[in-house]
Structures are given as structure tokens and as C-alpha cells.
Amino acid sequence: MTNPQGLRKNLAAFAGAASLLASAAFAGDAGKVVIDDKGVVEPEVWSICNVFDHNTLYEADQGFIRSVSAHARYQGQYISQDEDIDGVSNDFKDWQHRRARLGIKVKMEHGLTFFAEANYSSFLNNDGDGPFFDSFQDLWIESKQDGYWVRVGKQKQNFTIEDTTSSKRIKTIERSAIVNETAGARPWGAVVGFEAFGINHAFGGWLYGAHADAPEFIDFNSNGGLSYNGTYALLENTNLHFDYVYADNNGGSEGTEGLAANGLGPEYEHNFSLGTSSDFGKLNVIVNGIVASNRSGGGGIPDGNDTWGFYVLPTYALTDKLDLVGRYAYMDEGREQRTQRYDVRAAVENYHTFYAGFQYKLCGDQLKVMAGYEYATGDIFQSTEDIETGSWQLAVRTYF
Questions:
Q1: Beta strands in 155-282 (DSSP E)
Q2: What is the pTM assigned to this prediction?
Q3: Are the C-beta atoms of 298 and 329 separated by less than 8 Å?
Q4: C-alpha to C-alpha distance for 373 and 395, rounded to whole angstroms
Q5: DSSP string covering 130-178, please?
Q6: How far is CA 66 from the centre of its chain?
Q7: What DSSP element (H or E) covers 310?
Q8: Rounded CA gap, 30 and 32, in Å?
Q9: Nearest to 378 by CA among 354, 340, 348, 356
Q10: Which of the chain's termini has less CB crowding within 10 Å, N or C?
Q11: How many CB atoms lie within 10 A of CB 294?
Q12: Peptide bond into 215 cis (omega under 30)
């Protein structure tokens, strides 16, 4: 026979357990069921930015080749520029394919990486007339080991913070005049980097000449040079950068290319750069001073000329996507940096440039639109002729 007292206890226990389950299932607002969503995978919301995550062509956990990825870069820009040289006016309005590159990166065992990237912007600007690739931008192999790295091949020779920053991530549409005057192109060389005494060091040895045709292979008939780059965490929010580049140009009396067909080195024999990059929350400020001596003559500037200058580049993040960007730059003497890069650039002195603009990051730096206005004023080199330029600039940058 069933014990009524025991049955009542079992029913009471069941009711209590049911009450606890009900209170857990119907917690919060009446009628809203709380479901434990651990392990539930939400479907990914697709956006145009997802495109940049799919450039890997091959990937493996074993074997000598670990991954192969495709890379590309594009910058298109519209320039509307008015210039006045001692009362004579001219203007320029055009859309340009400023940068267009295709590349491949291969990662291998033992910390090895191979990278090649070629330019095809001339092909686009000439409406398809001529070879598709006009030159190789980079062509190098790198070994990263514990405590040091080595890179050999055609690569960027870092000089100044602005030039070291990739064109994928620079915050103005073009770099400043003093940087373009003193920095070199991408010569052939070997660089070794390591950290010691709290400083990131990089030492480079270079040959500055190349053959005329792509991929502009190294020409050993050219002159050589050396470089050093150092970065030190000066304060919690400030890094100190120092760069030195030596380029043998016989004191300015010849080009660094020597007997080679093409020169990829800087115009100056000795190049010094000292700068700081500071982050103050939403505000980033770069200040960089530059001194260079013994210029290779050309473009209206005599052999052995010296120059100096500096730039200040503040950036303020209004939102996660929108940055305001400003820059003031000064160049004592050198060649004018026209944004549209005319074949003929004026030799100037006492040259001031002021830039104000913004960048809107649709997909971070991988897809962004940029706009700005730059005003420049100075004198034609060794004359009393004034030069005054105003440039409206609009650009789109993208890469993967």
C-alpha cells in the first residue's frame, strides 16, 4: 500500500524542484524565456570588409611551405591644383592611379619569408599602353629568428617616421616635401635587426644602382652606402626614432647609381633624422627634424648643396572611423613636392607647406577615403621669385 505521507513529501519535493526550474526559465520580465546560449554560434554578418580576410591561397601545418598569400594595393587620387610663380599662374586637374601593385608572400619553415610586389600604375595611367609591370617595388627574402632578423633584397631604406610608415597607412595623401627630398627609393641591400639595451636597432648595407628594366636587378657597378635605424621607448606614450643614411656620391659630385642605368639611392651623402611619435588618447603627434648634406646636383640645384627641415603631424580620432589630420612642414632648400608629381618640379628654398584634411576608414586602413587641402609657399631657388600653390586633394586607398 502506498504511504500517503510519503507521497505528499515526494509531491512537495517535485513541486519545489519544478518551481526552481520555472523561476530559472522565466527569470526577468514576465513571458520572456531565458535560454542558456553557451555553445550557440551566431551567423557571421557579411560586409564588404570580409573581402580583405580571404587572400590566403595555401596554408599548411607541416612541410617547407606553410602559407602563400596574394597581396594588392591601390591608391587613386583626384588633384585640383593652382600655382602662381612670380605672378604667372598655371593649374592642374586630373584623376591619377597613384599606386597600383600586385604581390605575393610565401611563408616557410625556419622563420623564412619571401615577398615580391610589382608596380603596374603606369599601365593604368597610360590606358594599357606598354608592359603591365613597369618595375618591382619589393623583392626580398627574410629570416626571423629568436632575438634578430635579417632581410636581403630590394626593399625600403627607412628614413624618417613619415617615410618608414607604409603608404597603406600614412594619414596624408602625400608625404611632406622635406621627406620626399631626402629619402631614397627602394635599393638592393641587406638589413639586420635586433633589440639591445632597450633599443630596436637595424643596420643596413646597400648598393644603389639597378638595371633599367623590371625587376631592376642589382647592378654592382653602382655606389654603395650604409644605414642605421634606432627606436627607443622614451616615455610610456612616446617613442624616439633616429635614422642615419650614408650614400656614396663622391661628396655630391656624382649620382649614387655610379655606372648603373638606374639610381635608387637618396640624393644626399649624409642624412640624419630625429623624431618622436606620441599617443595622447585620441591624439597622436609626430615631430621629426631632418638634416642632409652634399646633394647630387640636378633639377636646378648645384652639387654639394645642403638642406634641413622638419614637420609636425597631429592626428585626432573623432570616432573609430574618422580622423582629422594636419601637418606643417618646412624645407630649407630642395625640390618642390607637387602632389600630382609633374615631370618638372621647381627647385625652391624657404618652403612652407600646410595641410588639413581627414581620413574615413570604411574597413580600417584596408579601405579608406581621404580628402585634404595643402597650401605651399616659398621662393624659387636662389632667386627672388615667389611660388605659391594650393591643392585640393581627394583619394581612395585600399589593400589586402
A1: 188-196, 199-207, 209-210, 224-235, 238-247, 262-263, 268-280
A2: 0.86
A3: no
A4: 12
A5: S-S--EEEEEEEEEEETTEEEEEEE-----SHHHHS-TTT-SSSS--HH
A6: 26
A7: strand 307-317
A8: 6
A9: 348
A10: N
A11: 19
A12: yes
- β pairing state of 148-154 and 199-207: unpaired
How is residue 340 annotated by DSSP?
Answer: T
Q: Would you state the cell numbers that stand for residue 90, as one nine-digit string?
A: 598655371
pLDDT by 10s per residue, the chain, length 400: 444 444 343 334 333 433 333 333 334 444 444 445 555 666 667 788 998 989 999 999 999 999 999 999 999 999 999 989 998 888 889 899 999 999 999 999 999 999 999 999 989 988 888 889 888 999 999 999 999 999 999 999 999 999 999 999 999 999 999 999 999 999 999 999 999 999 999 999 999 999 988 888 999 999 999 999 999 999 999 999 999 999 999 999 999 999 999 999 999 999 999 999 999 999 999 999 999 999 999 888 999 999 999 999 999 999 999 999 999 999 999 998 766 555 567 899 999 999 999 999 999 999 999 999 999 999 999 999 999 999 999 999 999 9
Q: CATH 3.40.50.920: does it fit domain 47-399?
A: no
> 378 with 69: CB under 8 angstroms?
no
- φ, ψ of residue 177 in degrees (nearest 5): -65, -45
Whose cell is 623624431? That residue is 275
Dihedral sign, CA of 233, 226, 215, 167? positive
- Among 399, 321, 391, smallest CA distance to 367 is for 399
CA separation for the pair 269, 292 (Å, rounded)? 7
| Length of the chain in terms of residues written | 400
Distance CA 310, CA 51 (A): 39
Nearest-Å Rg of the Cα atoms of the chain is: 29
Provide CB contacts within 8 A for 292, sequence distance 6+: 181, 182, 266, 267, 268, 270, 271, 272, 306, 307, 308
Neighbours of 190 (CB within 10 A): 15
Task: For residue 360, count other CB atoms closer than 10 A to its CB.
Answer: 14
Kind of pairing between the strands at 199-207 and 188-196? antiparallel
